[in-house]
Amino acid sequence: MAKQKFNIIKSTCIPVAIDNCNTDLIIPARYLASTTRDPKFFGDAFMHDLRYDAEGKPVADFVMNLPEYSEAPREGVHEIIVGGQNWGSGSSREHAAWAISGYGVRVVISSSFADIHRNNLLNCFVLPVIVSKEFQQELFASIEANPKTIVTVDVPNQTVTNEATGHSEKFEINSYKKYCLMNGYDDIDYLLSKKAEIEAYEVRNR
Fold this sequence. Notes:
Elements: E1 8-11, E2 13-16, H1 23-26, H2 39-45, H3 48-51, E3 80-83, H4 95-103, E4 107-110, H5 115-123, E5 127-130, H6 133-145, E6 151-154, E7 159-162, E8 167-170, H7 175-183, H8 187-193, H9 195-204
Parallel strand pairs: 2-3, 3-4, 4-5
Antiparallel strand pairs: 1-6, 6-7, 7-8
């Protein structure tokens, strides 16, 4: 997982309009036995059985293989997925979050997430953004009309904006996780950032 600081993300999006997209679709179970933590390995496995047929050939009409969405995620391009409702349902496998992060996605927008998967995403430096169903459908419509539609996710102000329409919504995020994302901290990094304060406390309370 890439420890990137979050501020304002402006990007085109990959629309994955699959409701109840479960973790077995996000990463098939056969990949769970791997002992590697190589991001590329898991990124290549992301949505593997929808992206490729039994012979390993790309499925031409799957959204991630369409020319307008097949370009690898990078800054400003395809860093955001707009997903269907109940994203990440099914098993609690952390590998699903590893796969999304390894593919290069930094934000997943949906009208609802499975709770464990949502937490796993946050721990892997992928921001899950919950919006209304109406806003979700507006995003899908804008992207269908123009795959170059830009969506802006403003983490400090907790807003997501469809630049095609100018419409915005607020989103919720745990204040601790927001602080960690904006500073590029995992839980250990956060504790280390407080080392001086912890040591001072220990001195005071011996």
